[in-house]
Amino acid sequence: MIQTFFNLDIMMAAWPIVLSGLKNTILLSLIVVPLGLLGGLILALLASIKHPLVRWPLMAWVDFFRAFPPLVLLILLFAGLPFAGLELGGFACVAIAFFLNTGSYYGEIFRAGIESVPNGQVEAARSTGLSRLQAMRYVVLPQAVRNVLPDLLSNTLEVVKLTSLGSVVAVPELLYEARQAQSITYNPTPIVMAAVIYFLILWPLVRLLSRLENRALAGRR
Amino acid sequence: MTQKHIVEARGIHKHFGALHVLKGVDLKVDERELVFVIGPSGSGKSTLLRCLNRLEEPSSGSVVVDGIDMLSPKTDINHARQRIGMVFQSFNLYPHMTALGNVTLALRKVAGKSRAEADALARAALDRVGLADRADHTPGQLSGGQQQRVAIARSIALEPRVMLFDEPTSALDPELVGSVLEVMRGLRESGMTMIVVSHEMGFARNAADRVVFMDDGLIVEQGPPASIFENPAHERTRAFIGQIQRH
Amino acid sequence: MNRWDKFTETFFNAKVMEKYLPDILSGMVVTIELALLIVVTGLAAGLALALLRALAIRPLNWLIIFIVDLFRSLPPLVVIVLIYFGLPYAGPAPSGFVSTWLSLAFVLMAFSEEIFWAGITSIPKGQWEASRSTGLSFSQTLFNVVLPQAFRLTIPPLTNRTIAITKGTALGTVVAVTEILGQASSAMSNSYNPSPLMMGAAAYIVLFFPVVVAARWIESKFAWKR
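Predict the joint structure of the above. Result:
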């Protein structure tokens, strides 16, 4: 059992490959998380315009991407677009898909955060002469972000995990490299290594989250 | 005539970690007696009350209620608790049930009544607290005073031998206190044994048989309301009563 | 042929669509089967773990917390790959369908346990005390007083999480499950035309969009009144 799943020789041999995958996973995360946050912020700010002509299309947009599996979106971009003469490469496809998909999730979270700030805050800010945007920037958003911090972190965790989809479109991230190493060595040890690495990196975040979430739900009463 | 104590607590100690909250309390209560427990916050009044139905486990001592040894491992504590009603400061009504549902739950699950029997008993109990017409309301639709009266109905429906009241009016707006005290007075007249932790000194004065003053985990002194309020023997009692009456 | 015609000819080719519609439909059936299996087993296992945790047996709780943390940390695709490509080395070779089902059920179990548990612990102590003071036992209190209130609180986060994980059935295509995406991809490479992929995308929208809209409605209906 140990020889199969935790084979030391294979670990040593696969380590450089797995390590380069890990680097790419971190790099990918550092690109797609800010992209998603940006997309979400744009959506949430648009949603604060209460006009029905903005509201309904926006809600449809968000619900569309909540209903659409990210992998399908990714394949659509990666395998579909070339038929329209547009070949983007795996990395760019992942970036666009994440901007659309995780942006919708972040958007919902930001929106809930903004709605959680009492209207009196805006009124107080406006009464001192701040503009609508200034009130949003200096008074509402800081409180909104604090109120939904557990949800933001939780979604970020999901986004980092989701970067493993890159393996399907040949982005050389952790899972992709581990599978390469597995097919070279005919041994599952590299995949186990990848799993252990994901766990070690993300476990502290999961622990933190479960504390924050417990507190958040208790506070809803 | 031999005195029969319906509640008999001896040498109750309670530690919360390093905190020594009860330091050897003895309390005997006669049948049909109304005992009022007063004292500064943190003096251990509520903890004492909660030791009597074992919501808190005393660190040492003994509690016998209606002849049942509450602390014995052989005692069916759930069955014993039916005989000891408790009313909480924050009502603790079940928000997902109607007033009737709140009252019938234990009747059905602990007393083993059928739904029809439980409904009839619960409606009678709600009638006693003046809320027969609110049976189908949920706690959210009731005022604080009404919620507390439903909580009292939840207890008396089980026909307890003793009722414990833990600051039953402290969470209420002043204008709603009267309705709850009215119900408590009615219970008193029907002969219910009651132990009440409360700051309602007016009620204590004209309804209590005995007032117990606690401070720092001990009973400092006890006696008829007149003597405790007009003529306290201890300096600490005098100081506390002076403070209460200034407000 | 102008550009628009060329575009529709490529992405919405009627002939190709007609030919591969049955494949996409059979893919939808597989996706629905897989999704239902995951939801039922995942939620049941999550609730069971949360109830076990309420018993407050120390070593057991540590084990539960570890399992939950493990499946919250690992990307679902990694779990699927591990079971599908890893297990055969140890003996049993689960099919792609079983691998995907088990993996996503474990993930849903972990997330729902956490949500159920948060719901249970968020019920104020006074509810336990009131119930116990009228003589209800621990389990009577749990089932009659605490869980009904906890469920109400957990429904919005639970529906969102369940949808997000159920969408993951598309990951099955990586391990050759013939669900929608799998059917669409192979149809695309057979016909050398992206129309099946567009059909597949539409199939996902048909399946999941109503669920998302329903979840929005449930969320507003069950949101705890503050």
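Chain A touches chain C through 51 residues (CB under 8 Å).
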